[in-house]
Amino acid sequence: MSENSVGSATASRAERKERTRRALVDGTLDAIADRSFSSVSLREVTRAAGIVPTAFYRHFASMEDLGVAVVEDSMRVLRKILRDVRRHPSADNARESLELLVGEIREHDVQFRFLIRERSGGVVEVRRAIETELRMIVHELTQDLSRIPALSSWPGDDLEMVADLIVNTMLATVVDLVEVTPASAAERDIVERALSQLRVIMLGMGQWQPRNVRGARTSAAALRA
User: Fold this and answer.
1) pLDDT in tens, 80-120
2) Which of 42, 166, 199, 212 sits a CA distance of 20 to 30 A from 87?
3) What is the pTM of this model?
4) Which residue ranges run through the membrane (predicted)?
5) Fold of the domain built from segment(s) 1-60
6) Which CATH number fits the domain 62-224, given the four candidates 1.10.357.10, 3.40.50.300, 2.30.30.40, 3.10.490.10?
């Protein structure tokens, strides 16, 4: 067999494995549309993926391991949105990001409900995975904020505090949005309230005096630029 043939066969096996792994994750998301992850069985997800139960362990070490993969898959959506809002904290950017958030929630309703439901209960490994992902998002936002010239003098703890406020505001908005009717007055009210909350955070950043800088304050105008 030629090297090209061996390479193609290896790639084909890897592609099949990835398709099966994807099918297991998608099958799990279908199963948890209206119930907890802990209520889903291994046989149920393997049946949905079209494989025998024993083949499950070629892809995941346990159901908890599968749950962590579902968390990572679901978090990609939230990370994408928060990546946009952390590029540069401004009112215009915040509105665009909130509008994007609404669209993504409607398109990925199951993933968002899963994250909300499992964050406060259920399987310990899944809950820990969600918190780990959220800490990573806060860390990434902290790093991005540190690159803004107006915030260059801020200590890391202060930047992390702001990042945590922004992330938690977005999460609270997600919790509210999944419970209301799309394109309703309630949805618009939630978006406007979240926008006001983000603006308050940004105004506060403009007036906040970093703990390692005495007599100097970050320019509010610089943050709005």
Assistant:
1) 766 665 555 555 677 877 888 898 889 989 999 999 999 98
2) 212
3) 0.81
4) none
5) Arc Repressor Mutant, subunit A (1.10.10)
6) 1.10.357.10
